[in-house]
Amino acid sequence: MLTNRFKNYPYLNEIAPINSIPEASKRAVPQLLFRGSEDGLIKDEEVKAYERALSKAGQRVEYIQVGGANHAFFDWKPDTKTQATFNKYGKYHAHEMLLFFDSVLEGLNKTEN
């Protein structure tokens, strides 16, 4: 369920990812979730609820809240402000993302061999 800010748009619950999480035994969908602590669009409790739902379905999930970052800190555009935000927050966490992907892909390679 989405927060009350979407109560006038009930159809959003139909397409919300939290409402279509498969059981990991049927389809594993490892997820790495990032949220800037200053994000005014996506609330911490919404991400935590999604994280709990993923865990309940047996899915692998990691949630990282990035202190001081706002929404879309991974964006990369040619303007100075966006580049500065990416350099401040995105570069470090892009490395964490790479490590997560490597661990997921390594696990896939082990099951295929």
TrEMBL record:
<feature type="domain" description="Dienelactone hydrolase">
    <location>
        <begin position="17"/>
        <end position="85"/>
    </location>
</feature>
<protein>
    <recommendedName>
        <fullName>Dienelactone hydrolase domain-containing protein</fullName>
    </recommendedName>
</protein>
<dbReference type="Pfam" id="PF01738">
    <property type="entry name" value="DLH"/>
</dbReference>
<dbReference type="GO" id="GO:0016787">
    <property type="term" value="F:hydrolase activity"/>
</dbReference>
<dbReference type="InterPro" id="IPR002925">
    <property type="entry name" value="Dienelactn_hydro"/>
</dbReference>
<dbReference type="InterPro" id="IPR029058">
    <property type="entry name" value="AB_hydrolase_fold"/>
</dbReference>
